[in-house]
Amino acid sequence: MKFNGLGDKLSKTWQRVADKTADISDSVKHMDTWAGDLQVKALQDKVAIAATGWDAIYADEMLVGKAAEDGLVSSGAVLLKQMKSVLSSALVKLRVEADKQLILDTTAAIETALYADKKANDYLVNVYTGLSTAMKGLDEINASPKILEALDKIDNKANYEALIGAYDYNARCENILVRANYKGLLEVAASDEAAEVLCLKAEQQDMLKSMAEISGAEAVDVGNHILDEILVKRVQNVYARVEDEKTLSALNDKIGDYNLSVSVPKNTASYTKHYGGQLLGATTEYTGKALSATGKGYSWLKAQLNKK
Predict the structure, then answer these.
(1) What Cα–Cα distance (Å) separates residue 180 from each residue in 88, 135, 147, 257, 285?
(2) Which of 95, 182, 188, 271 has its CA 20 to 30 A from that of 59?
């Protein structure tokens, strides 16, 4: 099904749900947290979509990105493959086991990122983990005099440094910040609604707001932290209370708007997963709002879902 078709179908579903809530009575009218529970589920789904979108953009920039202007290579994947080959050639000149292990770990991470099984359910996780591990390894290698000396002994130091320069990790990170709407993510995480729902302290809010001016690789690290350590982890422990329904709804709107503002990789699978999940989460949220407005509960919703 095409994206537009999916959107039309879900839009009609939303309208049907709204129409039904206006005139169908239900004996269960006292489940006052049901709407909030649906809001929590929708929020958890949208946060998961945000994290997946960020990882997909990171992987796309690191493996594809913009072609090098000098024409040396056409993609990040080509550069990483060449780095792997150059680094492996230095192993014969190294004597310290820790230096050898650093190269082995880094090249293994590159291998994982380049050749992960695309049909596996955890493909994106494997690629992201491989890339993030490889980037940390390359940082350590660039700061290691012994490894650079070993590369120099086999006349590969200049080649390696040229590859690092052409890859331009910081520039790729800047592209991620634009595509993944880093400032928009900060605004969501530092919002009063997020503070209330996720139990963030005022100092934590201030810290998040202060991160707006950083850039490059540092900002990408902050974005990762916000998604993994603040949003993803904390949203799993959120539970609904009657008085929180409006705040949950407002935070749902914010994270939903954020998700639709990012530029996910341009392939069918990514778009389907990203926007399809966004729409399904919105349907759940909409149902929650409808139930909240009418006082209808579980048995009503179950009956609607069972209808053909």
Answers:
(1) 34, 19, 35, 12, 23
(2) 188
